[in-house]
Amino acid sequence: QVQLVESGGGLVQAGGSLRLSCAASGRPFSRYTAGWFRQAPGKEREFVAAVRWTGDRIYYADSVKGRFTISRDNARNTVYLQMNSLKPEDTAVYYCAADSNGYPVDAMVGVATEYDYWGQGTQVTVSS
Question: Cβ atoms within 10 A of the Cβ of 41, count?
Answer without folding.
Answer: 7
